[in-house]
Amino acid sequence: MKTVGAAKLIIVTTLCVGLAACGGGGRGGNDDDAAFTPDMRPDARQTTIWEVFGNRTNPNTTVAVNKYLWNASLEVLNFLPIQSVDPFTGVIVTGYGTPPGGGRSYRATVKISDPAMDARSLKLSLQGPGGAAVAPGTVRAVEDAILTRARQLRVRDGRL
Questions:
Q1: What is the pLDDT of residues 88-119, one digit of tens each?
Q2: What stretches of the chain adopt beta strand conformation (E)?
Q3: Which of 92, 96, 95 is nearest to 75 (CA)?
């Protein structure tokens, strides 16, 4: 019975000593801070195991929005006043406006969620005054107009 307790004590002590030895990073009594500041330049910085699993793209510099869908959305909904746009997240929010030849006002929120030119990349939400629901056929017609215009822009650029 005593040998089991002694074996556990030896294992725990060995693990504690091993962990203490891994601590390293101390300054060893040297007060020169410049000698111990990490070099964060991208070419000098070492990679870690965690960077393998992380997202390497910087969301502040990467635009993951299809430019044809983006421009087509702005062109098709040009009768609506723009409240906010964020090309990094792909969101366009408009105020209320009446379409040409229409009698009812709408507001729109567009989300372009993927750089691929695909109907699944486009999410459109229309609201009537006071948050009233808009007929699904109207939403589908506006989505189709945006997708058609995006295809036209792509063909005009010659990127088929």
A1: 889 999 999 998 888 889 999 999 998 888 89
A2: 82-86, 91-94, 107-112, 122-127
A3: 92
Does residue 36 carry a pLDDT above 90? no
Assign residue 17 a region: left if phi > 0, alpha if psi is -120 to 50, beta otherwise? alpha
List, for residues 47-76, the tens digit of each pLDDT value: 565 565 565 656 555 667 899 999 999 999
Q: What is the mean pLDDT of residues 3-12?
A: 69
Residue type, 148: T
Task: Report the alpha-carbon distance of residue 95 to residue 6 in Å, rounded.
Answer: 75
- Is 53 exposed, middle or buried (CB count within 10 Å of its CB: 0-12, 13-18, 19+)? exposed
pLDDT of residue 87: 85
- Domains within the chain, CATH numbers bracketed: 2-53 (no CATH), 67-157 (3.30.530)
**Whole-number Cα distances in Å, 156 to 37, 53, 70, 111:** 53, 40, 15, 24
Task: Give the DSSP letter string of 64-95.
Answer: -S-HHHHHHHHHHTTTSPEEEEETTTTEEEE-
Which tokens belong to 146?
């945006």
